[in-house]
């Protein structure tokens, strides 16, 4: 039997392919081989889209012990870490004392006691008997204010997030809502009172970069509150990111004249 020459057509075609190693690149190379020249191949960026710096530090207690309305936008871009999961905070809502939408409006109860603690602690409550909602307590001890974490983007631990959420996706639907954030972090009401500035457990870390463009709008799902609180622009989100919850059309660029 005659041995095929080394320069056979099949071998030449294989050698013409680019040297690729990642799964996304291999898939793109195969698609490009079979598509027409006029059609461009769109390659989705590989996860993670945001990378965590090894130099990031825990936020100190005094960072949290300010008015919730001031703390809320400052939390944008910060990181939440529990075990192998790290999330970047992309959307929040502020809840203040004398706010008819705040859980502290009726005073201290067994459920709301955590919100009256010192700033920097977690307040996790069960919503509709289904969703664990993570709040970061703001201001001084006894004030009764907090910031709700509405949405995040994934940084590390995607497989753990997907397992906890029961969804094998890496799109905003995975984390665009407060109940989804609580589920992704594996939280329960037992996490209330936990200090977020202490090593271990659930932590808030410095994002390393300030968020330059912020969106602002009214809070979501508080129709029971007084009109001035329903209309208050106390919802904040990072601009130019898809990792935020609905409704998006009520969010506008933040200006120095927003409601306070």
UniProtKB/TrEMBL annotation:
Q: Which UniProt keywords apply?
A: DNA damage, DNA repair, Hydrolase
Identify the stretch(es) annotated as Disordered. 1-20
InterPro entries given in the database record: Formyl_transferase-like_C_sf (IPR011034), MPG (IPR003180), MPG_sf (IPR036995)
Top-rank taxon of the source lineage equals: Eukaryota
The protein's matches in HAMAP family, at most eight in alphabetical order, are given as:
3MGH
What the entry lists under PANTHER family is as follows: DNA-3-METHYLADENINE GLYCOSYLASE
Q: What is this protein's name?
A: DNA-3-methyladenine glycosylase II
């Amino acid at each position: 039997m005659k041995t095929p020459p080394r320069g056979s057509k099949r071998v030449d075609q294989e050698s013409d392919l680019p040297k690729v190693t990642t799964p996304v690149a291999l898939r793109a190379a195969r698609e490009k081989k079979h598509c027409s020249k006029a059609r461009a191949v769109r390659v989705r960026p590989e996860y993670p889209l945001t990378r965590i710096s090894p130099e990031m530090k825990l936020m100190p207690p005094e960072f949290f012990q300010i008015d919730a309305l001031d703390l809320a936008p400052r939390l944008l871009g910060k990181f939440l870490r529990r075990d192998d999961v790290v999330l970047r905070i992309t959307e929040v809502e502020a809840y203040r004392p004398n706010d008819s939408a705040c859980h502290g409006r009726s005073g201290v109860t067994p459920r709301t006691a955590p919100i009256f603690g010192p700033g920097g602690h977690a307040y996790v409550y069960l919503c509709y008997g289904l969703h664990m909602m993570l709040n970061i307590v703001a201001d001084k001890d006894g004030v009764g204010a907090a910031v709700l974490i509405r949405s995040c983007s994934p940084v590390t631990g995607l497989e753990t997030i997907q397992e906890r959420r029961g969804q094998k996706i890496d799109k905003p639907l995975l984390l665009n809502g407060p109940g989804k954030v609580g589920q992704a972090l594996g939280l329960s009401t037992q996490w209330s009172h936990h200090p977020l500035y202490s090593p271990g457990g659930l932590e808030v870390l410095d994002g390393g970069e300030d968020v330059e463009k912020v969106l602002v709008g009214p809070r979501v799902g508080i129709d029971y509150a007084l009109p001035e609180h329903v209309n208050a622009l106390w919802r904040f989100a990072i601009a130019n990111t898809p990792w935020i919850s609905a409704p998006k059309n009520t969010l506008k660029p933040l200006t120095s004249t927003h409601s306070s």
